[in-house]
């Protein structure tokens, strides 16, 4: 009976897809089993084109410099075509940049797949010592659907059979996938009658563009020339279209060489050395299913095959593994539910189908049967550049890709696509860097705060609010931080400002953007950037590149695989709304249109506490000395003496601005600007007041809505108390006593704007009533606010929140 080995993840095949996923797992420290049929590492790969997006991925894993140093850089494409004289000669018809300027900071390069795999293998060893097990021939796969390791894989090595049990299996075992066949899945698509040959060789020729990427369309056939890495070696790849009626299995090396000479008939061409060659019929197919019970997943050539001319095969396969790897790691680490893996199928199956459709178009463009003129061919080639650079993949909506309809905030950030990059200047050392270099493939999500021009007071207010939230205990940075990890261990905050960086000092930036991290627990100053001119006089114009208005800014959430989505910059950042108050959460223009009688809107937020005054420890009564709970106190602010109604008292609030997204946004913004507190929940509408405002030519009616609100700062220090909908958790009573573990002291950290308010107090119901009824009362209010405040106390009493 064969022995059995258990593993979290078993990867069948060590091609691009399998190694990319395995590198992610190794980065997380998760060991896996990689079974490869070959007796050892690949020595000569068939794929060689490394598109811009793939180079970005290598850069994010820390392998980019080595890749770029060893590879041939494709910078220009030369187009040649028949001269139209009937002589069979070809002439250069045009030139173009291989990658359109601005698409990516990374180039399109050429490097043998064996070396690409080698870079992955070296990275895996570095991360967690992961190795590949060679000589294994996978025989069968079963999903048993029960137990911790529900997938059974049978494999054989040196005539000895062994069973493997895994939680998840990745089928990355190529176009003739054993796993796919064992599952009974089929490849859907067709094969054309077009046959192409390919050979890697060293040519001796007087053709002038031999060290450029070249497309040649002639009466004798079509030829695509791709220079290979190694300047001293002059290795070059030829893709040659063979005559109609040719069968791939009948093709000989001499046939490819002669076809090349026919196409380049006016030039001398000798083939001094041929390293590898092959012939193939063009086919475009994809698997009918990409998974089995979300336990076995197909990737790479196991689920999509196509022609090699567009240089997509290795790249799309590698990106399959890149998409799957971090998701598997999140699930296995307990950071996400298994349902996250469903998004692999949703996202990559669509990419595979798009690839097949593009390959049909691109193959037809190259074919002699195509009727495109040289000019039309070049135009089609250039227009396809964004796709061939790997920058068009767009993932549909899912739990991790949500389009909030905010494309106006960042016109060039497309939800579900990789976040574009441009040069920025790092604040701490003035070093110009590409923004994308901050997106390390280390498993972290990013909160990218594009704060805009911080010389605009509203932007600075928003940034302070967002920074306060990100630095608080309620922040997702704290909620999801890894055990024993720093605050940025799972979610990393990054700030990108706009304009002269020297106008902003570090102390003006919220500390959440330079957290204390690492073994030595020092400030990490490398998360703050500015869209500014560098000392070398270059300017990345990132905001313009991304379509972000520096007057407003935007927040972008970036997945571990660099796909992003945008959020509106807002001082509220995070609050919830009681269901019966949803009518106030509609867009502000909609709310205004529904209330046409009012020319102006004002909002207020009333904040209560039971622990504001240390001596409020309750009053003993009764024979057993029981304590009554301390009284509720309401936060009041005293208006500056030089202001209208100077010296009077009010709750936080003020006019709603046209920039406020909703009426509630305006209330939350005013509470933060006037008191430095962040609204966490709108609980109840206390009242609505109206008054007339006399103008020279009219009378405007003003409406003020006052809400009972909770704030983030009042979160209990120890969780565990019940938290009913609509109640104030920081002030709630438990059998007549204050909730244990309530965080004290937040009430005294009120931050006033001295231009508007000179003092604050936490005031009891009786003190407010005295201010209303007694001329000697301290807490005088105005415009009917005193009555609204007393109504709020009555509301608390009716909701059983007061004894």
Helix content: 10-25%
| CATH third-level topology of the largest domain | FAD/NAD(P)-binding domain
The gross shape turns out to be: elongated
**How far apart are the first and last residues' alpha carbons, in Å?**
73 Å
CATH class of the largest domain: Alpha Beta
Q: Are there runs of 5+ residues with pLDDT below 50, and where? A: 616-624, 716-743
What's the architecture of the largest domain, going by CATH? Answer: 3-Layer(bba) Sandwich
Instruction: Quickly count the domains.
Output: 3
Query: Could you tell me the number of beta strands?
Result: 41
Give the name of the CATH superfamily of the largest domain: FAD/NAD(P)-binding domain
Given the helix and strand composition, which structural class is it?
Answer: alpha+beta
% residues in beta strands:
25-35%
Keywords: FAD, Flavoprotein, Oxidoreductase
Protein name: Nudix hydrolase domain-containing protein
Organism: Aspergillus sydowii CBS 593.65
Pfam family, one: Phe_hydrox_dim
Essential attributes:
17 helices, alpha+beta, Phe_hydrox_C_dim_dom, FAD, Nucleoside Triphosphate Pyrophosphohydrolase, 8-stranded mixed beta sheet, FAD-bd, 803 residues, 23% helix
């Amino acid at each position: 009976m064969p022995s059995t080995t258990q593993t979290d993840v078993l990867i069948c095949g060590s091609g691009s897809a399998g190694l990319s996923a395995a590198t992610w797992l190794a980065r997380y420290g998760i060991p896996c089993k990689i079974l490869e049929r070959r007796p050892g590492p690949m020595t000569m790969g068939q794929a060689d084109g490394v598109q811009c997006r793939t180079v970005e991925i290598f850069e994010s894993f820390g392998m980019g410099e080595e890749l770029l140093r060893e590879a041939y850089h494709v910078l220009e494409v030369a187009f040649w075509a028949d001269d139209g004289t009937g002589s069979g000669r070809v002439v250069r018809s045009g030139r173009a940049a291989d990658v359109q300027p601005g698409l990516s900071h990374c180039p399109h390069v050429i490097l043998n797949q064996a070396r690409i795999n080698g870079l992955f293998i070296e990275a895996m060893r570095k991360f967690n010592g992961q190795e590949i097990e060679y000589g294994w021939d996978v025989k069968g796969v079963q999903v048993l659907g029960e137990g911790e390791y529900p997938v059974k894989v049978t494999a054989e090595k040196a005539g000895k059979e062994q069973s493997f049990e895994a939680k998840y299996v990745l089928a990355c075992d190529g176009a003739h996938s054993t796993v796919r066949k064992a599952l009974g899945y089929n490849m859907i698509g067709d094969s054309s009658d077009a046959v192409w040959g390919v050979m890697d060789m060293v040519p001796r020729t007087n053709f002038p563009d031999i060290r450029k990427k070249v497309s040649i369309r002639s009466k004798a056939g079509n030829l695509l020339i791709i220079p290979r890495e190694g300047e001293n070696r002059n290795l070059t790849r030829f893709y040659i279209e063979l005559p109609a009626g040719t069968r791939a299995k009948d093709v000989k090396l001499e046939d490819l060489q002669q076809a090349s000479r026919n196409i380049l008939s006016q030039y001398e061409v000798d083939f001094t050395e041929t390293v590898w060659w092959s012939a193939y019929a063009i086919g475009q197919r994809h698997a009918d299913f990409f998974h089995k019970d979300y336990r076995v997943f197909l990737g790479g050539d196991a689920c999509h095959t196509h022609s090699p001319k567009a240089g997509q095969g290795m790249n799309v396969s590698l990106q399959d593994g890149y998409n799957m790897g971090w998701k598997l790691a999140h699930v296995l680490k307990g950071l996400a539910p298994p349902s996250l893996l469903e998004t692999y199928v949703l996202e990559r199956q669509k990419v595979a189908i798009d690839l097949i459709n593009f390959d049909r178009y691109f193959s037809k463009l190259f074919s002699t049967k195509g009727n495109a003129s040289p000019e039309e061919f070049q135009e089609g080639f250039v227009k396809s550049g964004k796709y061939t650079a790997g920058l068009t993949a767009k993932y549909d909506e899912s739990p991790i890709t949500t389009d909030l309809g905010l494309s106006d905030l960042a016109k060039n950030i497309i939800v579900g696509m990789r976040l574009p990059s441009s040069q920025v200047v790092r604040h701490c050392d003035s070093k110009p860097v590409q923004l994308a270099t901050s997106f390390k493939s280390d498993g972290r999500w990013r909160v990218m705060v594009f704060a805009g021009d911080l010389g605009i007071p509203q932007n600075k207010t928003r940034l302070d609010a967002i920074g306060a939230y990100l630095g608080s205990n309620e922040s997702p940075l704290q909620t999801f931080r890894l055990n024993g990890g720093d605050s940025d261990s799972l979610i990393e905050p990054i700030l990108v400002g706009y304009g002269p960086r020297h106008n902003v000092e570090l102390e003006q930036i919220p500390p959440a953007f330079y957290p204390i991290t690492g073994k030595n627990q020092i400030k990490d100053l490398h998360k703050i950037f500015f869209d500014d001119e560098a000392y070398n006089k270059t300017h990345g114009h990132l905001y313009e590149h991304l379509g972000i208005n520096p007057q407003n800014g935007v927040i972008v959430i970036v997945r571990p695989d660099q796909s992003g989505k945008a959020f509106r910059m807002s001082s509220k950042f995070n609050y919830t709304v009681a269901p019966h108050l949803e009518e106030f959460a509609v867009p502000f223009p909609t709310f205004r249109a529904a209330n046409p009688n009012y020319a102006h809107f004002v909002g207020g937020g009333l904040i209560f506490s039971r622990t504001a005054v240390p001596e409020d420890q309750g009053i003993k009564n009764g024979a057993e000395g029981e304590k009554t709970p301390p009284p509720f106190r309401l936060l009041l602010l005293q208006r500056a003496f030089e202001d209208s109604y100077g010296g009077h008292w009010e709750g936080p609030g003020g006019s709603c601005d046209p920039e406020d997204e909703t009426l509630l946004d305006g209330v939350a913004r005013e509470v933060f600007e006037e008191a430095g507190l962040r609204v966490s929940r709108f609980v109840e509408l206390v009242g609505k007041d109206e008054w007339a405002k006399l103008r020279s030519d009219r009378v405007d009616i003003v409406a003020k809505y006052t809400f009972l609100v909770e704030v983030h700062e009042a979160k209990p220090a120890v969780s565990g108390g019940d938290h009913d909908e609509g109640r104030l958790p920081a002030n709630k009573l438990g059998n007549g006593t204050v909730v244990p573990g309530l965080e004290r002291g937040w009430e005294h950290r009120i931050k006033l704007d001295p231009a508007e308010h000179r003092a604050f107090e936490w005031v009891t119901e009786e003190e407010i009533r005295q201010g209303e009824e007694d001329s000697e009362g301290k807490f005088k209010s105005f415009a009917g606010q005193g009555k609204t405040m007393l109504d709020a106390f009555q509301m608390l009493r009716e909701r059983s929140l007061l004894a």
